[in-house]
Structures are given as C-alpha cells and as structure tokens.
Amino acid sequence: MTDLYETIRLHGFGDVAREHRRSRPHLLAVVDGAVRLDFTAFDRRTTQLANALADRGVARGGRVLWLGQNSFRILETLIACAKLGAVFCPANWRSSADEVTTLLRDFDPAVVIWQDAEVGETLRKAREASGGDRLWLQHDAEGQGSYEGLLAAGSETDPDTRINAELPLLAVFTAAFEGKPNAALLSHSTLMYQNLIVGRGQAIDEDSVHLNSGPLFHLGTLMGALATFHLGGANVFAARVDAVGLLELIQAEKATHAFIPAPTIEQIREVNKEGLYDVSSLWSSPAAPEWKYPMCMPADAPMLRKLGGYGQSEVMGLISFAYLGGTAAGRVSPMAQVTLLDDEGREVGPGETGEFAVRGPLVMNRYLGADRENQRRGRFGWHLTNDLGKRAEDGSLIFVGPKTAIIKSADENIYPADVEGCIRQHPAVADVCVIGVPDPTWKQNVKAVIVLKPGQSASEADIIEHCRAKIASYKKPKLVTFVDALPKFAGTPFTDRKAVDAAHGGGGYPSFG
C-alpha cells in the first residue's frame, strides 16, 4: 500500500497541463499570431508531441534544445518534456555560429528545434560544424522535418507516465565560469514552487494574460510565463520586441502582465502618447506610470508595491523578495534557507559580508557536465552563489556584489570572462580586461582594455569585428582602449579589476535590493 501511495503522490509539471484540461477545459491557454489554444487543445498537443518524441527515442533524461524566438511552442515543448521526464533548454537564439556549436557540444541534445527566419544561416553553420545524428526540427515550417510534422504523427493517447518532481526539467545556460556559460538544471518541483511564490507576488490568477515580449531564454520573462500557465492564465507570445506590435497585442488581448525592458517602454510611450492604443488592462494611462521594472503587473500586485529581491538562475530567478517583508533585498523565500559564509564555510557574524549560500528545493539540481564546479559550489552542504551579501538588522538580505563581475547591458547579463575569452583569440592580443561603463540608456556598455603583443597592431574596429564574428553581437565591446600593461595583484597573474575600473571609467554594475 505504501508503494501505491508513493506513486499516487507524484506530481510533475506535466500534470499541471492534465489538470487544466479537466478543470479549465475551455479557458484560453496560449495566443501566438493566428494560433489560439484552450487548455484542452494545448494538453492534447503536448501529449502528441511527447509521444512523437518518445517514438524518436527521447526518454527520461533525454535533452531537447530550442533555438528560436519566442513561440507558444516553447511552452508546449517544455510540457511535453515534463511528461517524458526529459530536459528542455530554451537557448539564446542571438548566439553566433561558434557559440551554438559549443552549446550543441556541451548540452548534447537528442533533438534540436530550430528557426529559419533571421537565424537560419547561423544555425546551419553550427549544425554542420557540430555533426552528430541528432534530430533537427524546424518550427517555422511545415511538412517533413518540421515541428508540426512530427507533432501530427504523435498519438493523442496520454500514457500518463508518473514523473518524480525532483527530476531535472529546465536547463538554463548561465553563470560563466572557466570562460563560458554552463547549464543549470532546474527540477519540476523547483519550477512549481517558484510559480506559486511568483504568482502571489505578481497577482496572477486564471484571469491573467501574460505578454511574453522579453526573450524566453531569460528567467525574467519565463518566471511570469510559467506562473501564468501554472495558475490557469493565458500566455501571449511575441517573437520580437516591437513597440507598435506590443501595443497592438496589449489592446487586442487585454494583457494584464508583461515583460518590457526600459528602452522599449520609452518607445511605447512615444508611439502611444496620443492614446491611440488602449493599454488600460496593463496601465492606468498611455504614459504607463506603473512601469517600474521589466516585469509588468497590476498596480496592486505585492511585487510592484514593494519591488526588489535577490537571485540568480541557479535558484530559479529569485531567492528573496522585498514583498515578503524586511528592507533591502527582502526576506528569503518560504521554500529556501540562506546563510552567509566565509571562504572556509563558516557563517559570518551579523552585519558582516559573506557569500550567499542557499539550501532548499529552489536550488538547481546541478550544473550539467561540470562535476568539479558542482563539488566546489556544494562543498559546504550549501549552494554557493558566487555573490557577496550581508544581513540587515531586521534579518533581510543586502546584496553587496558578485565575486566575479557581471555587466548588465539593457536586460542582458554579459560575463567579462566570456568576452575576454573571445578577445584572447585575436592573434595580436596579449592580455585583456573587460569592464562595464555606465550608460544612461543601456545601463552599461562593454569596454575592453587590451594589451597588444610586442610588434603587433590592432584597431578598435578590428577587435569589435573579431568579436562580432565569434560571439553574440550584444556581447561585443562598444569601446576599446589599448594600454601597455594591466594592473595585477602583487605576486600573482590576476588582474586587479577594481584598478582597471578606476582607471578606465568602469562602474554601474548591477545591484538588486
């Protein structure tokens, strides 16, 4: 009898779709252009896709990669993978061919769902360079070799496979170490616990309409989308961020929630200054006065009334929330513990700075294929975040800064090690330090401070074009400075980044809370 109830108690993220089919059969689940699916149709399609993927050999632990812009098929594929016990990764479609080739090697998916529009040439180069016998499905096409073609071949009969919620489901590439991003694996339970916490904070329910206008390879957008799905609301998908297109969707679908970055909100305000579009479902006037942060929500939502928090992808986006109380970055989630440790794993005293360390079901399962880093991060029985902080007197968290700097350009995280690794491949470069410099529009710009090899020459344009060819365009430096030497810590080969910042205008690094 015990074994029976162990199975009965299992509840994976795919079961959320099954229950919506029963509880909300006619409520709208997704909107994407001409596609409008209620929860009955959505669940049926996820079952078909899961069965079709299983027929092609995707089983528990199998990996599926998405390389394309926002689409309802991202949510659909995630749920299909949830029903199989497989792992789904929505990757950055703006990556270069070299970056995608590395991604394919590191993630090693059995299936790649890709897009031809805008990025087809890049992805074909990566496909050729990576080789392998993985299945490639084009999502913006029909017929043989297409996503829809495969889905149509799948049975509509749901095998109702029981899935342990502690299995990994979502892979998010993040946290560059050793010069490149790595995949954090997040479980079914991690997603579901966070959905309930975010849903409360953003005032999401079955009447909510979430406009997915930010990229769904970022947890900032994905958290709202998943919470909306989990709580029975509708998700609307926009492939690209376009002010007029977003205004049309807000008006037509009566969006109540959205993810809209600062440069786009300014464009929206300008386009709609005469009130041509009805945005009353989201803001009180065309000026969008309630907008405070890319995650848009009702004015009375707890997270908007008290905005702030601390987190990272490895803890499903946020681990503390200002709306839960306290000051600064707020109080820790009810589904986690946070302590602050020194370099020997000892808890630091009140008011002292230490490394945020986290326990609980919001922590990732692990980094994929990074055993040494997993051991390092978990060596004290906590997940070490690589971020420094301290406690306020009231017990809430204060974020001090990353142990390794992150540059924030618009809403993109750019890791200096990633850009430095690219620049070091230039034959004229002997040494480099990449820093962020403040920018009033984009928060920060990327600046490369470079030492050239003796007898070698390179221009600013040479370096920028070198980066443009090898990494995503948003990562390339906008500014390049050549110096004779970089400051080092005494007796070490390590660059003193603070000294480089001070000498070359660095600053504006992200803090939250």
List keywords for this structure.
16 helices; globular; Rossmann fold; alpha/beta; single chain; AMP-bd_C_sf; 4 domains; four-stranded parallel sheet; 513 residues; ligase; Luciferase, domain 3
Task: Describe the protein in words.
With 513 residues, the protein is of the alpha/beta class. The protein folds into 4 domains: 14-226, ANL, N-terminal domain (Rossmann fold); 241-305, no CATH class; 314-402, Luciferase, domain 3 (Roll); 407-504, 2-Layer Sandwich (GMP Synthetase, Chain A, domain 3). A 6-stranded mixed beta sheet has the order 2-1-10-9-11-12, with helices on both faces. A 4-stranded parallel beta sheet has the order 4-3-5-6, covered by helices on one side. It has a 4-stranded antiparallel beta sheet with strand order 16-17-19-20, with no helix packed on it. Strand 9, helix 9 and strand 10 (234-237) form a beta-alpha-beta unit. The longest helix is centred in the first third of the chain and has 17 residues, at 39-55. The N and C termini lie far apart (49 Å). The mean pLDDT is 94. Keywords: Ligase. It comes from Caulobacter vibrioides OR37.
Strand order in space, largest sheet: 2-1-10-9-11-12
Total number of β-strand segments?
Answer: 25
CATH class of the largest domain: Alpha Beta
Radius of gyration equals 23 Å
Unreliable segments of 5+ consecutive residues:
none
**Proportion of residues in extended strands:** 15-25%
Q: Biggest β-sheet: count, sense, barrel?
A: 6 strands, mixed
- What is the molecular shape? globular
The average pLDDT is 94
Q: Could you say what the CATH topology of the largest domain is called? A: Rossmann fold
Give the full name of the CATH homologous superfamily of the largest domain.
Answer: ANL, N-terminal domain
Number of domains: 4
Q: Considering DSSP H and I runs of 4 or more, what fraction of the residues is helical? A: 25-40%
